[in-house]
Write a structure and sequence with these properties.
single chain, 13-stranded mixed sheet
Length: 236
């Protein structure tokens, strides 16, 4: 059942702190949560620092539509913003969420979903879904905290920063998993090795190589990897 986040907010009777306060309230359970602060750290813990319009799908079947949300990729948490107030929602209540971005007059929707399992995967972590078919192509985007000593006058000083990190996975219909890199050979090896989708002939590998050249696909781009997987699903 779809709900406007504004309607749900009006049902929360307890006082909710603003963005500058120490606490935020869970919008469903009403539990008071501590806001995590990141002072003195370079970079951002978020997938995108700005809030954007999106939809949040709960495990209960309810949907919050047109909410202003952002994803804390370091903590693996979602935050809501409404009228200068900050809200949160516990991960175990969320199935997936969609974030919409306007680029060049077009809307690009980024889908985050959890529940994936297998080697290298965590069922409670949100993954970006790039493609779904006989193969599922997902990405684990995270912000990693790093601290190192920087030389200077006297004693070295510690420098703290968030650094983006990405891991890509292909999931087979039998739920087995292969991790890939944004490289042509890595993608083709995953699709043509005997351990992945059965034995493939050199001819079929050449066909995929030819498609990459003809369509000018860049295996360094997730959208082009997704296009190759779509072709693969239709033809093999």
């Amino acid at each position: 059942m779809k709900k406007s986040l504004l309607i749900v907010i009006t049902l929360v009777s307890a006082s909710i702190a603003n963005l500058n306060a120490q606490y935020v309230q869970d919008i469903v359970t009403g539990e008071r949560l501590t806001i995590k602060r990141y002072t003195g750290i370079q970079g951002t813990p978020y997938f995108d620092e700005d809030f954007t319009t999106g939809d949040v799908y709960l495990t209960s079947g309810e949907v919050f539509t047109d909410a202003l949300i952002r994803y804390n990729a370091y903590e693996n948490e979602i935050e809501y913003s409404h009228e200068g107030r900050l809200y949160s929602l516990k991960n175990h209540l969320i199935r997936e969420f969609h974030m919409r971005y306007r680029r060049g007059g077009l809307t690009d929707t980024v889908i985050f979903r959890k529940g994936y399992s297998g080697e290298g995967l965590d069922s409670e972590t949100f993954y970006i879904v790039h493609y779904e078919g006989d193969i599922t192509f997902i990405e684990r985007f995270s912000q990693r905290f790093q601290e190192e000593l920087v030389p200077g006058y006297g004693q070295p000083s510690p420098e703290k920063r968030f650094a983006p990190s990405s891991r890509l996975f292909l999931i087979r219909e039998d739920e087995s998993v292969d991790e890939i890199r944004k490289r042509k050979n890595s993608v083709l090896n995953a699709l043509t090795e005997t351990s992945f989708f059965g034995r493939f002939t050199d001819e079929k590998r050449r066909e995929l190589n030819q498609l990459i050249r003809q369509e000018n696909l860049d295996m360094g781009e997730t959208k082009d990897i997704a296009r190759l997987l779509e072709y693969y699903d239709k033809n093999y």
